[in-house]
Amino acid sequence: MKLSNSYAILTQNNSNTDQLVQDLLGNYDISGLTELQHLNGLLFSRSEINRYMDEEERHDIKILTKDSEQALKTMSSGEQKKALLSYLMEQDPDFIILVNPYDNLDVATQAQLKEQLIAITSNKIVVQLVSRLDDVLPSTDQFFKLDGNQLHSYDSPDAFWKENKTEAISFNRTIPPPLSPVVVDLEELVSFKKVSVSFDGRQVLDNIDWTISKGEFWQIIGPNGSGKSTLLSMITGDSHKGYGQDLTIFGQKKGSGESVWDLKQKIGYYTPSITNKFRGYHSLENMIISGLHDSIGLYVLPTDSEKQLANKWLHLLNLKNRKNDHFRDLSVGDKRLVMMARAMVKHPPLLILDEPTAGLDESSAYLFVALVNKIAKESDSTIVFVSHRKEPQLDPEYIFELHPSEKGSKGAVSKN
């Protein structure tokens, strides 16, 4: 196999990516990549940024930001990655390893980074470890897939693309109905009227007007730092920035004495970090039932009807025969599906999904998005989906896009 300037290694949720990176940097003889054995490589990854950030915070040693007064931790994800890439190129390595380089970046920043990386391949060897096919650089001519610890090579680019193309996915069964529907007799669930937010004197949101009505399917998009998380935290009641504003949630003006607990009873919320809270030996059946009780783990004896409902969800997810398996033993993709079922088991009036596909491989992301689309079509739950990445299969009705400016981000509504 000839020496290439661009290698792509498609990773999956079961891939031992860390070990492969260590072997590449340690100059081990790796089948299919023997040409790199005696070359000097450096790593471009989120873990490297975290390592330099730790050095800066613990020992006051500035490496990536030595020419700047700004601390690494105060930079956006895009700025941090730009600083790391610049530093690595100054070291003049023979090859550079990219691990999911576009994660946590908005669409515009992804495009800018991709242009830089394409330029680098003209005089450096680039080894890409990516979990999404869209992230493969166009100049790539050597292709692999990492299955666990096994690195499989492809005879041609056509063979790689043909084998790994992900078809549209569908679920055969219908969404199970709730045991006791949470009734909200309102057309408008959330209403922002001229809402502005600032932090430490810096304006983040500028005169936001946005109404979320019953049964709608929204996607929120916008660059890093544009205020997406701020919007969500005001809806869920986790931010005090909504007080004194013209913000109405489930018919109650913010600051009018509404109960945060009552608010959370009407909202299903999922972000991947929530998964880390469930470290015990919870069965899949109990995981879904715990969503009925808003608890981390199940501490009450479940009823027969609760068990039946949980098993309908597991059947839908093709996990029916694994109801007694431990949640902690599932793949990352299956964990996300179970957490989605847990968030939806009561059919909350409002379901918020915050970067739910971040870090998933291609097939797991397609499966998760297919489930979201199905819930949107078969339930009355209003969905708000937030993601940096444009999921090609996602089918929202409306898009709320944040456009940053010096006076804070403004919002624009469009129909998909």
TrEMBL record:
UniProt KW Nucleus keyword: no
Record key words, sorted: ATP-binding, Nucleotide-binding, Transport
Superkingdom field: Bacteria
Gene3D superfamilies, per the entry: P-loop containing nucleotide triphosphate hydrolases
Record-level Gene Ontology MF annotations: ATP binding; ATP hydrolysis activity
ABC transporter domain span: 190-416
Protein name: ATP-binding cassette domain-containing protein
Protein family (similarity comment): Belongs to the ABC transporter superfamily.
Organism this protein belongs to: Flagellimonas chongwuensis
